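The instructor's notes for this session suggest beginning with a concrete chain rather than abstract definitions. Hand out the sequence below and ask the class to guess, before any prediction is shown, which regions might be ordered.
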Amino acid sequence: MKSLVVETERAWQALGQVSYGPTEAERQSLVFRRSLYVVKDLNVGDVLTRQNVRAIRPGYGLAPKDLERVLGARIARNVPTGTPLSFGILLSNGTIQTA
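After discussion, reveal the predicted structure:
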């Protein structure tokens, strides 16, 4: 019986704990991930397309998974080439869900 208790405890500890999101060690390397950037000069009202937005490094913009959400959105202000894409530079016309 003692062996059963010891092995059960060992199995329970082997399961560990679920942890979502980056660890402390990974947080410093997040900047090296890809993110969305504007690759052509855009003016107020221009529409985001695959030709003027790309996923490149460093990771200061929106995540690449948001590309489909922002395609077709209009720009709220003039944006030069090389600007990290954020929801703050998009017109809020109700078509983009920021949550």
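Then share the key points. Helices lie at 2-15, 24-27, 67-70. The first strand starts at residue 35 and ends at 38.
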